[in-house]
Amino acid sequence: AIMSAATITVPKMYGALFITNGFMPSAVCLWMAFGIVGPARRKYGVDLPTMYAVSLRDGDDAYKFNCCQRAHHNTLETLPLFFLTSFLGGIKHPLLCACCGLLWCYSRVVWANGYATGVPKSRYAAFGSRHVWTALLIPLLCSVSAGLSV
Question: Which of 12, 19, 44, 82 is the most buried (most CB within 10 A)?
Fold first, then answer.
């Protein structure tokens, strides 16, 4: 059988994705681990390797710690999708995907800070925090666009 091959040309702006969609989101995740969860462990007395504390009622220390932990874990749960779709979608739409990297970083920081208050609904209170989902959806659509053009 004869197989055909497609040549993919990487656009000039593609390198920006290494910074905005690779390095910066990784730095945000590290900030969450060491700037939100680590201090929350000390403040609320939740030692490693305990992943989540047992909460007896909304608003107790365990509950507040769990909010900090969920902010970090939700970010980690969505990060592989963000990486994959950004780098695939960036083949055709590098500038748009790079902008989504900046949006992802900003919205994740304000979203996590809201969640870390111990009031889960506060994760969407800050300006731009709802764009955690916009920053995932646009690269997903860009990756579909890139796939259809190959």
Answer: 82
